[in-house]
Amino acid sequence: MAQSTDITLANQSGLAFRTELNSILAALSSLQSGSSAPSTTNAYQLWVDSSSSPAILKIRNGANNAWIEVGDVTAANLGLAKLSGATFTGDVTLNAQSDVRFADSDSSNYVALQAPATVASNVTFTLPSADGSNGQVLQTDGSGTLSFATASGAVTSVGGQTGAVTYATSWAVGTGATAATNTDLDVSGTYAGNVVAMSALDVDCSTGNYFTKTINGNSTFTFSNVPSSRSFAFVLELTHTSGTVTWPSSVKFPADTAPTLTTGKTHLFVFETNDGGTRFRATTAVDYVN
Predict the structure, then answer these.
(1) Phi, psi of 208, rounded to the nearest 5 degrees
(2) How confident is the model over 68-87, as a mean pLDDT?
């Protein structure tokens, strides 16, 4: 290891000149190796920093105000990755959503992997230890560990009920019946819907198809969130204690006359529309005894 305070030869006698020249040549040939930086520096000057283990080759930056680490002088290729291939022993980070690209045989096109634009927290995916079987898919356990698994086949149970649940151009749901030809939904067996107990006087059609309401005074009903471009119907079970009922102007009863309701009874109203609620046709079954 050798360093020289400078690499400028001053005018001097022959022996002194040769001594200083040998010192400068020794420093240059050893790349100014030493445990501390050379006292005199120049832009793009090389220095082997032996203060660390292994020693590191460094180069002075263009502004001559800092050293830039180049590589490990004890490793092949200074420990740097070759274009022809390399093995990394640490993490590799690609900044700013940069890609990992896998080129095709003539390198004209590639398949790339990249991170999403925003990641709330670090995510690590751990690959399976072995290849899966033909037809299997890659799945996650929700914690980043990936494994191969057999893809789910046709659904055979809905809500614990078994039977035919298939989709091609139609659905068959129920006890094993095959969907009828040109039928989008074929139900074999029973089905049920929720009952919506109304707290106010608005029938929110997005919440169900069967509504219940008790009134004890004059009441004006409204209908909201009616499906558009579809046929839609719902039932209103009305317990009538007292008061009159006013329906939306879109509701049409037979003979354009709403039924007379008996107080203290329960009444069923069925409303149907096929134009998004512009017009509802209504039918009734009134005066049930509770």
Answers:
(1) 165, -170
(2) 84
Distance CA 172, CA 179 (A): 5
How far is CA 142 from each of CA 55, 116, 133, 226, rounded to the nearest angstrom? 44, 18, 22, 38
Report whether 136 contacts 128 (CB < 8 A).
Answer: no
Using CA atoms, how far apart are residues 63 and 43, in angstroms rounded to an integer? 6
d(C-alpha 73, C-alpha 159), whole Å: 67
pLDDT above 80 (res 243): yes
Residues 6+ apart with CB under 8 A from 12: 20
Q: Is the pTM of this model over 0.70?
A: no
Angstrom distances, CA of residue 281 to CA of 18, 234, 247, 256: 115, 11, 12, 10
Q: How far apart are CA 272 and CA 268, in angstroms?
A: 13
